[in-house]
Amino acid sequence: MLTALPVLFVSHGAPTFAVEPGLAGPQLTRLGRALPPVDAVLVISPHWMTQGEVRVAASAQPDTIHDFGGFPPALYALRYPAPGHPALAARAAALLGAAGYHARLDERRGLDHGAWVPMMHLYPEARVPVFQVSLPQPLDPAGALALGRALAPLREQGVLIMGSGSMTHNLYEFRGHGSDAPYVAEFTGWVREAVRTVMRNGDIQQLIDYRRLAPHAARAHPSDEHFLPLLAAIGAAKAGEPLQVIDGGITYGVLSMESYAIGQSRPAQRTPEIL
Prior knowledge:
By secondary structure, this protein is α/β, with parallel strands linked by helices. It has helices at 24-34, 73-76, 86-98, 113-122, 141-151, 171-176, 182-201, 205-208, 210-213, 217-220, 228-236; strands spanning 7-11, 40-51, 54-57, 103-106, 130-137, 159-165, 243-246, 250-251, 255-256, 259-262. The protein has one domain (7-262): Protocatechuate 4,5-dioxygenase, Chain B. The strands form three sheets. Strands 5-2-6-1-10-7 form a six-stranded mixed sheet, with helices on both faces. A hairpin with a 3-residue loop joins strand 8 (250-251) and strand 9 (255-256). Belongs to the DODA-type extradiol aromatic ring-opening dioxygenase family.
């Protein structure tokens, strides 16, 4: 019998991922089918950041937020009508408070595209409740790791924790839509090995210090916010748990869609990557 649900890090890419699934979308759908039953999904997204506090979305029926501009009109008509879960949101806020955070519930917050876009692939039927936890500002990689650790007990209470960010996130280059940039694969490969190291022996220091150690880190992430959900996801996991690498390829030449699932899914349906 499973005692803890897996933890996910998902690269949510551009908003167009909602209608252009590419390599990553079908893999997320297969992953959703292989996961154990969950009571709710908790999403940590860089598109909800709050100054000096952590907010937890507690709407019973969160709206779909279209927090982007300049994309095809069809994207703005999309809705992800999954329910929220106020009771589990309150439990998350209590855990954060016990860990020393100034945490409060937000009954009006909807789902930003960092949440609903990947959820459209992971759980396309929109029946699984979903709620979000904000990224408090200021926040660094070590702080994101601590945030995930504070939320980790929810894994044993029916909550699937998902950090939704981007393996690479250079908006200037994305808008240029140039050809594939070699640095994207180099940075992604370095992070993959660093995550494997964490899962083998718990050595997190490389990821915390990624801006100094990883190749092309400043180019891959001119700012930290889309990398921090990975640290939050790692914080909610434990060394020794099985790691599955979801290679979603590269979109628009510069957006790596690599994602990770950490922990045990249904054994008969998937064999985790051997570390």
